[in-house]
Amino acid sequence: MAQSKYLSNLEPWQDSKAQPYVSIKNFTKTFGGLVAVNNVSLSIYRGELFSLLGRSGCGKTTLLRMLAGFDTPTSGKVFIDGIDMTDTPAYKRPVSMVFQSYALFPHMTVEQNVAFGLIQDRVPKNEIRDRVDAYLELVQMSGYERRKPDQLSGGERQRVALARSLVKQPKLVLLDEPLAALDKKLRERTQLELVNIQEKVGVTFIMVSHDQEEAMTMSSRIGLMNEGRILQVGPPTEIYEYPNSKYVANFLGSVNLFDGIIVEEESDHVVVKSTAMEKNLYVSHSSSVPVGAQISVAIRPEKVMLTDSRPTGEHNWTSGVVKDIVYLGDVSIYHVKLRSGTTIFATVANLVRAAERPIQWEDEVFLYWRPENGIILAI
User: Fold this and answer.
1) At what angle do helices 125-138 and 154-166 cross, to 10 degrees?
2) Is the pTM of the predicted complex or chain greater than 0.70?
């Protein structure tokens, strides 16, 4: 996760004295009887790369378009750098947008595409040339000035679109699925390049994505959306390790979920009885949950350890039969069916070649995990 600049000092969202750079207050957008964005409030800080993450149709792009001024909110306000921009038209906002299709002018050269906005703003010619050269160098596109968009690869077009957005020196850059058109290898490389560029220029980025891996890699924080609402906001590690709902746990990565009842509650742990398990679940670092409450325990597959030997202890282990092994190169995902019929997923690093691994299909195995790796979620 590329958030090095947020690790050395107190993060701005944790500082009670920090003022939001972008403040969205009670944004709602309806289309006829459909509520696309439902009373969303967000505080985004200067220099962040903030991602709006969610499935198609969850409202993230509509929210981005309202920030850009392309759509008018049904209700609510937005402030950028302390100034109310709610009624300001798109062309007067200090905002640039990078579209999924890049929207480059096909008849213009790279240089002309990047200079277009500056020409429209009547910037002096010498300044236009200097700024275009500087931003093409920033995105590593120097030497491509005379090429047309159809002479560029997808990654090169993406860089030109970014240079065109940055050259106007906006206060805010909005990115709508900016890497969706790239193949997997190029997308992975471009993610880090984009983060490095954003850190160099120090401009606040807000990105829309449906790709959880992309959002986890690039973002200082993520706002996870569903049905027009923000479900959880936080750094990628926080949302992944401490989801606040079953929906968030399921959306961000894979997860094992066990429904159960709290049978013991202490200051530092709870014990959960689940019909899916042979043994009770012991969960530490849990918030206070009363005895008798119906909850779910979430455990990430990479936290589950696999062995052919029976574990010691009275909690947090079970047994089953390996029904499938999904080989992904660096790791394999074991599908283990328990006696209850529940399937547990365990992610295991491939430290030996597949033919040499000690556990194979239809083997009886034991699974176990540490008490701090369980997460209590309300049903």
Assistant:
1) 140
2) yes
CA distance 18 to 219: 19
| CATH code assigned at 262 | 2.40.50.140
**Domain match, 264 and 351 both:** yes
Contacts of 208 (CB under 8 A, 6+ apart): 51, 52, 60, 61, 64, 174, 175, 176, 177
Domain total in the chain: 2
Which pLDDT tens digits describe the chain residue by residue (379 residues)? Answer: 454 444 447 888 988 889 999 999 999 999 988 999 999 999 999 999 999 999 999 999 999 999 999 999 999 999 999 999 999 999 999 999 988 777 889 999 999 999 999 998 899 999 999 999 999 999 989 999 999 999 998 888 888 999 999 999 999 999 998 888 778 888 888 888 889 999 999 999 999 999 999 999 999 999 999 999 999 999 999 999 999 999 999 999 899 999 999 999 988 899 999 999 888 999 997 677 899 999 999 999 999 999 999 988 888 999 999 999 999 999 999 999 999 999 999 999 998 887 778 899 999 999 999 999 999 998 7
- The residue segments making up the domain with residue 203 are 4-94+170-247
Domain stop point among 247, 280, 296: 247
> Does residue 162 fall inside a structural domain?
no
266 lies in the same domain as 223: no
Residues 241 and 259 in one domain: no
Which is nearest to 131 in space by CA: 118, 143, 140, 141?
A: 118
Using DSSP's 3-state secondary structure scheme, residue 273 falls into strand
What are 257's two structure tokens? Answer: 């979920």
As to burial, measured by CB atoms within 10 angstroms (0-12 exposed, 13-18 middle, 19+ buried), residue 46 is: middle
Which of 247, 266, 297 is the endpoint of a domain?
Answer: 247
As beta bridge partners, residue 321 has: 337, 364
The end-to-end CA distance of the chain, in Å, is 30
Give the CATH number of the domain where residue 78 resides.
Answer: 3.40.50.300
Rounded CA separation 139/199 (Å): 12
Is 305 inside a domain boundary? yes
